[in-house]
Amino acid sequence: MPVAIITGASKGLGRALAEALAARGWDLVLDARGAEALGEAAAAAAAHGTRVEAPPGDVTDAGHRADLVAAARKLGGLDLLVSNASALGAEPLVRLAELPLEGLRRALEVNVVATLGLVQEALPLLRESHAGAVVAVSSDAAAEAYETWGGYGASKAALDQLAAVFGAEEPELRVWAVDPGDMATDLYAAAVPDDDDPRPEPAGVAPAFLRLLEERPASGRYAAPALLEGRR
Q: How many Å apart are CA 50 and CA 143, to the nearest integer?
């Protein structure tokens, strides 16, 4: 069975991806800070008959990242790493003039530094896979100038560049930065608590990621809405 690590898997897009992959026979290593919610997500994935390891922890902790990769090795290897865990930098979001520098540091640490650290840790297993792939969950805020989204957007722009360079340096792997588009998630609610506009559920976005795994296009940046429409 193929094996995937998914960070930020206790809810939202991470949990939706975990259940979608489990339904297709993937074994999983799931990560999140909250043990209770992570346990619930792991149980939902395991209900599909797949093996699931779910050590709670913070992806900024090098020891925890090593534990995630060790869990994948225990399951037989690693074919996919999904870097989905994210930090906003401020909740709710604020203009750059008011953004606490510590919040920006946290966003960069979670969204960029921890992703690089986990990919570095996992790289030997990914290279051994016949179809190794990395998915970095990005945002349209990485490419568009939205007021109050500056710190988060800057971190995701850095993540996009990291993914692009990894794709160039590791031609045997697939490295995709994916903008999932608008979704109804706790992260978005924390970012903009006054926005009551309806947004798609993460489960409806997961098929875009599955398309990447099925078709394995070249490394690069992709938008989930276009993938869902059959475009790239």
A: 37
The answer to whether 222 is a known catalytic residue is no
What's the confidence (pLDDT) of residue 184?
Answer: 85
Q: Give the C-alpha separation, 29 to 26, whole Å.
A: 10
Cis previous bond, 180, omega within 30: no
First to last CA, the chain: 28
Domain boundaries, the chain: 3-228
Question: In 10 A of CB 186, how many CB atoms?
Answer: 11
Question: Phi and psi of 138, rounded to 5°?
Answer: -100, -150
Q: Where are the beta strands (DSSP E) in the chain?
A: 3-6, 27-30, 52-53, 80-83, 133-137, 174-179, 220-223
User: Active site residue: 146, 152, 188, 222, which one?
Assistant: 152
- Please state at what angle helix 12-23 crosses helix 202-215, rounded to 10 degrees: 50
pLDDT of residue 232: 63
- List of the chain residues with pLDDT < 70: 232
Specify the pairing of strand 80-83 against strand 174-179: unpaired
Q: Kindly report the CATH class assigned to 3-228.
A: alpha beta
